[in-house]
Each structure stands twice: as structure tokens, then as C-alpha cells.
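Quick one: structure for this chain?
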Amino acid sequence: MHLGTLHPKHPRKHSKRIGRGGKRGTTSGKGTKGQKSRAGASVRAGFRGGDNRIWQLFPKQRGASKKHGNKSPHHKHRFFSLHQSKPQVVNLSMLSAFPKDSIISPEILIEKKLIRTARGKVKILGTGEIKHALKFSDVIVSASARAKIEKVGGSIISQ
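Got it. Here's what it folds into:
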């Protein structure tokens, strides 16, 4: 065996080189004239013949997003809160597993893995039915959930 006789099992595949005559017609699939029809030509993305790029034509839009190192939004958006702290949601149907007269608080909901953290507020929504009376503390309760809780004899300690 000699190094000069080594060759791969599968021959290399070359991409088809267009624009060199042959059976593809006069222009070989490159159209007529222009920069992109020339040999070795490549126009980078976004190039418009020396004109401004399309994303440079439009002005930068000011948003309510907070810029790096700045705690306050733009003065136009001082009444608009982008990062609203929404409460974590628990439906009444999820609470049917709790025993009668048990106290439902954010800490207990974390233990049962119904919510992730106690960092924000917790809101009880009225989706589903509740079978027996429960006591709720330190949670927000929607109007429909409040009606269903009071209907079965439950109570809301604090909100």
C-alpha cells in the first residue's frame, strides 16, 4: 500500500456548476445581465444596490421596554406598565382534593404543587365545582368563585 494509491470509498460529490454553457441554454439559468448573472457574483443579504438597507429606512420605535441601566420607562409610557405582576391562577376544580374545612393558603398550594412560588399573589377562579366547605386565607377570589364557595358554606378569611 502506498499513500498515493489511497482514495475514499465513495467519490466526492460536486455541486452543479452553472453558467458554463452546456444544455441549460444561453444564460444557464442565471437570467440576463446584471450583477447576479456574472461569474463569482454574490450579493449579500439586505444589499439594495448602494441604497439604504430596508431596516435603516424606518425610524427606531420607542417602546415601553426598560433600557439597560434605567429603572424608569420613557416619559410617554410612564402610565403603562409592561411587566405587570399577574397573580398565579388556581381553579376551584383543583381544590376538590382538599379535606373539608381545611385552610387554603399560598403555602399549602405550594406544598401540593398547584403553584410554583409564593412570590406573587394567588387568585382563585370559579372554573369547576367545589363539593365541600373550605376556608381561604391570603388569596384573591374572583366573584364567581366567591359565590360558589359561599354556596357550599366556605369562607374567605382575608384577601
